[in-house]
Fold this protein.
Amino acid sequence: QVQLVESGGGSVQAGGSLRLACVASGIDTSRNSMAWFRQAPDAEREAVAAIDTDGSITYLTAVKGRFTISKDNAKNTLYLQMNSLKPGDTAMYYCAADEVDKSGLGDEYEYDYWGQGTQVTVSS
């Protein structure tokens, strides 16, 4: 059984930082493309950052230079370091895994496994 469990969300003021973590079980993160998505109220889910099996990374333009995706395959864990947070970053953040290696962010329907989400709220 595959499980992705996110943690690290919370409430911060604009300019603050948070580090999200996603612990995977039942899959090998070294063999999956991994990504972080987010969904704000009344908005569609969008890919924020993705890392493929050879370590190539892609970011949503809006977060480039502020967010950093990484993974520790020994711990089967995906991370998202978020700095200089803005109120527009407020959303539920989800971890996702795709058994098919891909480059780029991809669409949500391409991903096979999802976590339950962790809420990030940024106040001005």
About this structure: The chain is about 0% helix and 50% strand.
